[in-house]
What we know:
The chain folds into three domains: 1-35, no CATH class; 37-89 and 145-202, FAD/NAD(P)-binding domain (3-Layer(bba) Sandwich); 91-143, no CATH class. It is 33% helix and 30% strand. It has seven helices and twelve strands. Helix 3 packs across helix 7 (145-158). The chain starts with a helix and ends with a strand.
Amino acid sequence: MSQTEQILSQLPGDVLGRLRSADKVWKALREGTTPIPEVITETEDELGTLDLDVVICGGTLGILIGAALQQRGWRVAVVERGVLRGRDQEWNISRQELEVFLELELLSTAELENAIASEYNPARISFFQGPDFLVNDVLNIGVDPVFLLDTLKGKFLAAGGKLFEKTSFTKATIHPDGVSIGLKVNQLEVTQVKARLLIDAM
Length: 202
């Protein structure tokens, strides 16, 4: 086992295993051995009554969009293949970007401060065999994704949002008046949801 593999194998969340799985997928794509399924089709048939305004596939990023739209009165569902939970690894962001949560009234000032796990200045940018550059206020805040996503998830649900956990996207059919989305729940039951818009945040 290489030194890189040793380090990655000690990280929580099976980082090494997930990287190996991603490598297998990329290798198969490069070699042309992976069949690409047709998951988007079109029809001239109208859906009629819609269940939702927006369905967002991919919970980690989707809950950010979903919480904002649901809070503004849209009927939103977020689809997550696993359980919607942030990873135990900080996300780097700038203060200016974080303040969007305040502008959209998704977080209070206290909640925003609780979401910040670390903050530092300056940050160093390095290139191989090149000089180092020091910058201030650029990706210098580490956000706790577990706290952030859990907080937004709670607000999303409290506002009436629908969350489909352990649910996979299977296909979508585009209609003149919306889109029908096929979902597989717990790898068994297949259901269909009709919405005005489908967002891919996977």
